């Protein structure tokens, strides 16, 4: 009898919690350093989701390291009450191949809440590089084999993945220089300490516009319409056939988060994705807001599974690990 009473009390408490959610600040864990492209997406989204969630405070918690696995693990282990969420990018699909061991399972230890955006990438170089367009860059690459430094935001980062594809496409090995985040990598690129980087438009657009780096092309199938980027060719158009990659972002909760709480978060996410100010901020950086079926949880999960299947052989062939 006591067990029955306890079970009923627990259920009642859970229902009450869902009905009153959110009653305190929500933490969104970003498994990358502050100031980077994913951090920027998270901060813009938090502002857009705040009102639909009743003006609750949404706090960004940057927990960087190990190809995003440290922050991701923190959310996997968090209480499934809707107050600790995860905003991550394509790393959700690459960690299974990049990590020798994982303290969580991407496909079963999270509740998928929906996707946010697709972010194109740009190939950029230090401002002192003696190549003003991709044709000149291609010649420079061939003349400087063994001397080229290619920066990235850390093993498993979006810039690392794009760099792997670029080296494979041009068939030139480069010295990979991993940083602890996008911001320090970009600082060294602008300062001339590294030669090249392939990174998200959310991080490169302002630097391109200010002419602090040289832009050589975008990683999309078609040219972008963003004012600062619309004059750039696609890397496919300049000769890298099949070179197409975008970095998507999604929102997640710990496994076991109540369905009613998930529904409230998902509803707030859908409102945020239609928020004019959020759209304006993202489009100014070249990001494309998700409007297709991947906004829904089930389709989001299917998409990530397909991305895992796509990236695993590429990463395994490169022989790189984040731990």
TrEMBL record:
Keyword annotations from UniProtKB, A to Z: Signal
Matches recorded under Pfam families: TctC
Domain of life: Bacteria
Record's signal peptide: 1-18
Transmembrane segments: none
The UniProt record lists the keyword Transferase: no
InterPro entries, per the entry: BUG, Bug_dom1
Family membership noted in the UniProt record: Belongs to the UPF0065 (bug) family.
Protein name from the UniProt record: Tripartite tricarboxylate transporter substrate binding protein BugD
Organism of derivation: Rhodoferax aquaticus
């Amino acid at each position: 009898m006591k067990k029955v009473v306890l079970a009923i009390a627990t259920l009642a408490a859970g229902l009450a919690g869902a009905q009153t959610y959110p009653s305190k600040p929500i933490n969104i864990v970003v498994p990358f350093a502050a100031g980077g492209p994913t951090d920027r997406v998270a901060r813009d989204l938090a502002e857009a989701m705040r009102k639909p969630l009743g003006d609750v405070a949404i706090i960004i918690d940057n927990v960087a390291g190990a190809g995003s696995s440290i922050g991701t693990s923190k959310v996997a282990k968090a209480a499934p009450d809707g107050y600790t969420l995860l905003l991550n990018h394509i790393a959700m699909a690459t960690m299974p191949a990049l990590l020798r061991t994982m303290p969580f399972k991407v496909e079963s230890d999270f509740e998928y809440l929906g996707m946010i955006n697709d972010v194109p990438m740009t190939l950029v170089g230090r401002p002192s590089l003696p190549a003003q367009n991709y044709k000149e860059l291609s010649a420079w690459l061939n003349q400087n084999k063994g001397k080229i430094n290619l920066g990235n935001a850390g093993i498993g980062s979006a810039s690392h993945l794009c760099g792997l594809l670029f080296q494979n496409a041009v068939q030139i090995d480069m010295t990979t220089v991993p940083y602890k985040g996008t911001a320090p990598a970009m600082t060294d690129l602008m300062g001339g300490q590294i030669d090249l980087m392939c990174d998200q438009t959310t991080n490169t657009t302002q630097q391109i516009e200010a002419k602090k780096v040289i832009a050589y092309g975008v990683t999309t199938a078609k040219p972008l319409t963003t004012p600062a980027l619309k004059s750039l060719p696609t890397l496919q158009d300049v000769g890298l056939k099949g070179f197409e990659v975008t970095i998507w972002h999604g929102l997640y909760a710990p496994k076991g988060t109540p369905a009613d709480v998930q529904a409230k978060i998902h509803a707030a996410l859908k409102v945020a994705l239609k928020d004019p100010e959020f759209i304006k901020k993202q489009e100014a950086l070249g990001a494309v807001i998700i409007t297709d079926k991947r906004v829904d949880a089930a389709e989001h999960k299917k998409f990530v599974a397909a991305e895992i299947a796509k990236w695993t052989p590429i990463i395994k062939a490169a022989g790189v690990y984040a731990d």
